[in-house]
Amino acid sequence: MKKWQRDMFMIVRPIVIISTVSREGVPNAALKTNFMNVSALEKVAFCCFPEHDTHRNVIETREFVVNVPPQKIVEQVMVTAVDFPRNVNEIEKAGLTAIPSEKVKPPRIKECKLHMECKLRWCKDNIIVGEVVAASADDDLIQGSVEERQMKLGQMFLVGAEMYGMIGDVRELPLRIIKQYEEEMRK
């Protein structure tokens, strides 16, 4: 697919860093944008080509961590997108800090404000689905309104092939519409 074709797909995708460890215990970190929550945060899924270290590590160890990076570390995040040779610690290369996870071997990344520790649920081709076994967030994400917490998170989204953005306008869903129709159907 050519760049102009990729740019036509303006689907907004969250930017995360997946951290894993190799069978030998070497940490790995990889920027991923094909990520989604599944089953009300009980499971998560992302795409990763089988030839990548991240895919190999998840298959071999059956564990990974989803780290949500804030915009202020965007340049460090981009280092994790570099295809370094196997067994290079991308967390160190990016100047990020590995911190122990609670329930899995792969480390969390300290500079990220939100983490989901996962066990491999299933994998098919380049799709990896994990069960969230532990989650953690910086204390400042627990206080305040949804809008305030989202601004503190500073979550980034890929827009097109070479652009990124952040949430700037948070609005309440018009849930009254659903309630209205549910009431009408009960009559």
Structure commentary:
This protein is α+β, with helices and mostly antiparallel strands and 187 residues long. It has 6 helices and 12 strands. The protein has a 7-stranded antiparallel β-sheet. The protein has a 3-stranded antiparallel β-sheet with strand order 1-11-12, with no helix packed on it. A two-stranded antiparallel ribbon has the order 7-8. Strand 4 and strand 5 form a beta hairpin. The radius of gyration is 18 Å and the shape is globular. The model has no long low-confidence stretch (mean pLDDT 89).
Q: What's the short story on this structure?
A:
Helices cover 24% and strands 34% of the residues.
Residues in β-strands, percent: 25-35%
- The total strand number stands at 12
Structural class: alpha+beta
How is the largest sheet built, in terms of strand order?
Answer: 3-2-6-9-10-5-4
CATH superfamily: Electron Transport, Fmn-binding Protein, Chain A
Largest sheet: 7 strands, antiparallel
The number of domains: 1
Number of helices: 6
Q: Provide the helix percentage.
A: 10-25%
**Taking Cα atoms only, what radius of gyration do you get, to the nearest Å?**
18 Å
Secondary-structure arrangement, i.e. CATH architecture: Roll
> Which consecutive residue ranges, at least 5 long each, have pLDDT under 50?
none
Q: What gross morphology would you assign? A: globular
SSE order, one letter for each helix or strand: HEEEEEHEHHEEEEHEEH
CATH topology: Pnp Oxidase, Chain A
